[in-house]
Amino acid sequence: MAAALRPLRALSRAPLEPRDRRLHLSAVRGDAVVISGRKLARQIRQEARHEVQQWVAAGNRRPHLSVVLVGENPASHSYVLNKTRAAADVGISSETILRPASITEEELLDLIGKLNNDAAVDGLLVQLPLPEHIDERRVCNAVSPDKDVDGFHVINVGRMCLDQYSMLPATPWGVWEIIKRTGIPTLGRNVVVAGRSKNVGMPIAMLLHTDGSHERPGGDATVTISHRYTPKEQLKQHTIRADIVVAAAG
After folding, report:
1. What is the CATH superfamily name and number for domain 157-247?
2. Residue 12 has pLDDT above 90, yes or no
3. SS3 readout for 15-66
4. Which of 103, 107, 179, 183 is placed for a possible disulfide with 24 were both Cys, Cβ 3.0 to 4.6 Å?
5. Is 89 a catalytic residue?
Protein backbone atom coordinates (compact mmCIF):
# COMPACT_ATOMS: atom_id res chain seq x y z
CA MET A 1 0.00 0.00 0.00
CA ALA A 2 1.56 3.27 1.13
CA ALA A 3 4.95 1.54 1.28
CA ALA A 4 4.89 1.44 -2.51
CA LEU A 5 5.30 5.23 -2.49
CA ARG A 6 8.74 4.83 -0.90
CA PRO A 7 10.62 5.34 -4.20
CA LEU A 8 9.11 8.82 -4.60
CA ARG A 9 9.27 9.73 -0.91
CA ALA A 10 13.01 9.05 -1.02
CA LEU A 11 13.53 11.98 -3.37
CA SER A 12 12.39 14.43 -0.67
CA ARG A 13 14.71 12.98 1.94
CA ALA A 14 18.08 13.54 0.29
CA PRO A 15 20.04 16.11 2.31
CA LEU A 16 22.11 18.79 0.63
CA GLU A 17 25.54 17.21 0.50
CA PRO A 18 28.56 19.43 1.26
CA ARG A 19 29.92 18.93 -2.25
CA ASP A 20 26.64 20.29 -3.67
CA ARG A 21 27.05 23.53 -1.75
CA ARG A 22 30.16 24.34 -3.80
CA LEU A 23 28.71 23.78 -7.26
CA HIS A 24 26.82 27.03 -7.75
CA LEU A 25 29.91 29.27 -7.84
CA SER A 26 28.21 31.92 -9.95
CA ALA A 27 25.70 32.47 -7.15
CA VAL A 28 28.60 33.58 -4.94
CA ARG A 29 29.91 35.93 -7.63
CA GLY A 30 26.46 37.42 -8.15
CA ASP A 31 26.22 36.43 -11.82
CA ALA A 32 22.90 35.51 -13.39
CA VAL A 33 22.41 31.78 -13.88
CA VAL A 34 19.99 30.04 -16.21
CA ILE A 35 18.69 26.83 -14.65
CA SER A 36 17.26 24.16 -16.94
CA GLY A 37 14.15 22.86 -15.21
CA ARG A 38 13.60 20.35 -18.01
CA LYS A 39 17.06 18.86 -17.54
CA LEU A 40 16.53 18.51 -13.80
CA ALA A 41 13.09 16.99 -14.38
CA ARG A 42 14.59 14.35 -16.68
CA GLN A 43 17.20 13.55 -14.03
CA ILE A 44 14.59 13.19 -11.27
CA ARG A 45 12.36 11.03 -13.46
CA GLN A 46 15.28 8.76 -14.26
CA GLU A 47 15.98 8.34 -10.54
CA ALA A 48 12.31 7.64 -9.80
CA ARG A 49 12.13 5.18 -12.70
CA HIS A 50 15.16 3.32 -11.35
CA GLU A 51 13.70 3.13 -7.83
CA VAL A 52 10.37 1.85 -9.14
CA GLN A 53 12.20 -0.80 -11.16
CA GLN A 54 14.12 -1.88 -8.06
CA TRP A 55 10.91 -1.95 -6.02
CA VAL A 56 9.13 -4.17 -8.54
CA ALA A 57 12.20 -6.37 -9.10
CA ALA A 58 12.26 -7.05 -5.35
CA GLY A 59 8.89 -8.76 -5.73
CA ASN A 60 6.66 -5.85 -4.75
CA ARG A 61 3.50 -4.82 -6.55
CA ARG A 62 3.85 -1.93 -9.00
CA PRO A 63 2.76 1.36 -7.34
CA HIS A 64 -0.67 2.61 -8.40
CA LEU A 65 -1.99 6.18 -8.43
CA SER A 66 -5.68 7.09 -8.49
CA VAL A 67 -6.67 10.60 -9.58
CA VAL A 68 -10.16 11.98 -9.03
CA LEU A 69 -11.12 14.68 -11.53
CA VAL A 70 -14.36 16.59 -10.99
CA GLY A 71 -15.94 18.73 -13.71
CA GLU A 72 -14.73 19.96 -17.09
CA ASN A 73 -12.10 22.56 -16.16
CA PRO A 74 -9.68 22.48 -19.16
CA ALA A 75 -6.65 23.37 -17.03
CA SER A 76 -7.44 20.60 -14.55
CA HIS A 77 -7.79 18.05 -17.35
CA SER A 78 -4.43 19.16 -18.76
CA TYR A 79 -2.73 18.93 -15.36
CA VAL A 80 -4.13 15.47 -14.73
CA LEU A 81 -3.06 14.25 -18.17
CA ASN A 82 0.49 15.44 -17.46
CA LYS A 83 0.49 13.73 -14.07
CA THR A 84 -0.65 10.38 -15.46
CA ARG A 85 1.88 10.63 -18.29
CA ALA A 86 4.63 11.31 -15.75
CA ALA A 87 3.50 8.32 -13.69
CA ALA A 88 3.61 6.06 -16.74
CA ASP A 89 7.05 7.39 -17.65
CA VAL A 90 8.54 6.20 -14.34
CA GLY A 91 6.63 2.91 -14.28
CA ILE A 92 3.74 3.79 -11.96
CA SER A 93 0.30 2.62 -13.05
CA SER A 94 -2.52 5.13 -12.76
CA GLU A 95 -6.20 5.72 -13.36
CA THR A 96 -8.27 8.88 -13.74
CA ILE A 97 -11.73 8.74 -12.18
CA LEU A 98 -14.03 11.30 -13.80
CA ARG A 99 -17.00 12.75 -11.97
CA PRO A 100 -19.42 15.51 -13.07
CA ALA A 101 -19.34 18.98 -11.52
CA SER A 102 -22.79 18.22 -10.12
CA ILE A 103 -21.44 15.55 -7.76
CA THR A 104 -22.36 16.24 -4.15
CA GLU A 105 -19.76 16.66 -1.45
CA GLU A 106 -20.96 13.52 0.31
CA GLU A 107 -20.75 11.49 -2.91
CA LEU A 108 -17.18 12.67 -3.42
CA LEU A 109 -16.24 11.87 0.18
CA ASP A 110 -17.76 8.42 -0.21
CA LEU A 111 -15.63 7.81 -3.32
CA ILE A 112 -12.50 8.96 -1.48
CA GLY A 113 -13.32 6.62 1.40
CA LYS A 114 -13.55 3.66 -0.96
CA LEU A 115 -10.19 4.53 -2.55
CA ASN A 116 -8.64 4.94 0.90
CA ASN A 117 -9.75 1.40 1.74
CA ASP A 118 -8.65 -0.09 -1.59
CA ALA A 119 -5.39 -1.97 -0.98
CA ALA A 120 -4.55 -1.70 -4.69
CA VAL A 121 -4.38 2.12 -4.47
CA ASP A 122 -1.06 3.43 -3.16
CA GLY A 123 -1.38 7.11 -4.01
CA LEU A 124 -4.52 9.25 -4.22
CA LEU A 125 -5.10 12.83 -5.27
CA VAL A 126 -8.20 14.89 -5.91
CA GLN A 127 -7.49 17.52 -8.54
CA LEU A 128 -8.17 21.08 -7.39
CA PRO A 129 -10.02 23.37 -7.76
CA LEU A 130 -13.35 21.76 -6.97
CA PRO A 131 -16.83 23.18 -7.67
CA GLU A 132 -17.84 25.95 -5.27
CA HIS A 133 -20.41 23.82 -3.44
CA ILE A 134 -17.66 21.43 -2.24
CA ASP A 135 -15.42 22.21 0.75
CA GLU A 136 -11.88 21.66 -0.56
CA ARG A 137 -10.31 21.52 2.91
CA ARG A 138 -12.76 18.82 3.99
CA VAL A 139 -11.96 16.84 0.84
CA CYS A 140 -8.18 17.17 1.27
CA ASN A 141 -8.45 15.97 4.86
CA ALA A 142 -10.59 13.02 3.77
CA VAL A 143 -7.71 11.54 1.76
CA SER A 144 -5.69 9.05 3.80
CA PRO A 145 -2.44 10.75 4.94
CA ASP A 146 -0.53 7.65 3.82
CA LYS A 147 -1.91 7.98 0.28
CA ASP A 148 -1.89 11.78 0.11
CA VAL A 149 0.55 12.36 -2.76
CA ASP A 150 -0.39 16.07 -2.91
CA GLY A 151 0.74 16.57 0.69
CA PHE A 152 -2.40 18.59 1.46
CA HIS A 153 -3.76 16.59 4.41
CA VAL A 154 -3.45 18.48 7.69
CA ILE A 155 -1.30 15.67 9.13
CA ASN A 156 1.20 15.90 6.27
CA VAL A 157 1.24 19.70 6.52
CA GLY A 158 1.92 19.35 10.24
CA ARG A 159 4.72 16.84 9.66
CA MET A 160 6.30 19.18 7.14
CA CYS A 161 6.14 22.06 9.64
CA LEU A 162 7.79 19.82 12.27
CA ASP A 163 10.63 18.93 9.86
CA GLN A 164 9.49 15.31 9.63
CA TYR A 165 9.33 13.14 6.53
CA SER A 166 6.11 13.59 4.59
CA MET A 167 4.83 13.94 1.07
CA LEU A 168 5.43 17.53 0.00
CA PRO A 169 3.21 19.67 -2.25
CA ALA A 170 4.51 19.40 -5.82
CA THR A 171 5.49 23.01 -6.57
CA PRO A 172 7.39 23.65 -3.30
CA TRP A 173 9.05 20.25 -3.68
CA GLY A 174 10.12 21.22 -7.21
CA VAL A 175 11.59 24.54 -6.03
CA TRP A 176 13.43 22.76 -3.22
CA GLU A 177 14.86 20.15 -5.60
CA ILE A 178 16.05 22.87 -8.00
CA ILE A 179 17.84 24.68 -5.17
CA LYS A 180 19.45 21.48 -3.86
CA ARG A 181 20.47 20.04 -7.20
CA THR A 182 21.98 23.25 -8.56
CA GLY A 183 24.00 23.79 -5.39
CA ILE A 184 22.52 27.21 -4.60
CA PRO A 185 23.79 27.97 -1.08
CA THR A 186 21.00 28.65 1.43
CA LEU A 187 22.65 28.36 4.85
CA GLY A 188 22.45 31.79 6.48
CA ARG A 189 21.24 33.43 3.27
CA ASN A 190 18.40 35.95 3.02
CA VAL A 191 15.42 34.62 1.06
CA VAL A 192 12.24 36.42 0.01
CA VAL A 193 9.20 34.31 -0.85
CA ALA A 194 6.59 36.35 -2.71
CA GLY A 195 3.30 34.67 -1.89
CA ARG A 196 1.80 33.02 1.19
CA SER A 197 -0.59 30.40 -0.19
CA LYS A 198 -0.89 27.27 1.91
CA ASN A 199 -0.02 25.04 -1.06
CA VAL A 200 2.96 26.97 -2.47
CA GLY A 201 4.35 30.02 -0.64
CA MET A 202 4.08 28.75 2.92
CA PRO A 203 5.60 25.30 2.22
CA ILE A 204 8.49 26.86 0.27
CA ALA A 205 9.23 29.16 3.20
CA MET A 206 9.10 26.20 5.61
CA LEU A 207 11.52 24.13 3.54
CA LEU A 208 13.99 26.99 3.20
CA HIS A 209 14.14 28.22 6.79
CA THR A 210 14.08 24.96 8.77
CA ASP A 211 17.07 23.23 10.35
CA GLY A 212 19.31 21.31 7.96
CA SER A 213 20.12 18.72 10.64
CA HIS A 214 16.53 17.67 11.30
CA GLU A 215 14.73 14.52 10.10
CA ARG A 216 13.60 16.33 6.95
CA PRO A 217 16.54 18.68 6.33
CA GLY A 218 15.78 22.32 5.60
CA GLY A 219 17.80 25.15 4.10
CA ASP A 220 18.80 27.08 7.26
CA ALA A 221 17.96 30.36 5.50
CA THR A 222 16.46 33.55 6.91
CA VAL A 223 13.12 33.82 5.13
CA THR A 224 10.84 36.81 4.61
CA ILE A 225 7.33 36.16 3.26
CA SER A 226 5.71 38.97 1.30
CA HIS A 227 2.11 39.11 0.11
CA ARG A 228 -0.53 41.39 -1.40
CA TYR A 229 -0.52 43.70 1.61
CA THR A 230 3.25 44.11 1.77
CA PRO A 231 3.95 47.79 0.91
CA LYS A 232 5.76 48.10 -2.41
CA GLU A 233 8.64 50.05 -0.89
CA GLN A 234 9.14 47.36 1.77
CA LEU A 235 9.02 44.64 -0.88
CA LYS A 236 11.62 46.54 -2.88
CA GLN A 237 13.94 46.75 0.12
CA HIS A 238 13.43 43.08 0.98
CA THR A 239 14.29 41.95 -2.54
CA ILE A 240 17.33 44.24 -2.76
CA ARG A 241 18.75 42.60 0.38
CA ALA A 242 17.77 39.08 -0.67
CA ASP A 243 20.21 36.46 -1.88
CA ILE A 244 17.33 34.38 -3.27
CA VAL A 245 13.88 35.48 -4.42
CA VAL A 246 11.15 32.88 -4.96
CA ALA A 247 8.10 34.09 -6.89
CA ALA A 248 5.15 32.08 -5.54
CA ALA A 249 2.35 34.51 -6.41
CA GLY A 250 -0.12 34.78 -9.26
Report:
1. NAD(P)-binding Rossmann-like Domain (3.40.50.720)
2. no
3. CCCHHHHHCCHHHHHCCCCCCCHHHHHHHHHHHHHHHHHHHHHCCCCCCEEE
4. 183
5. no
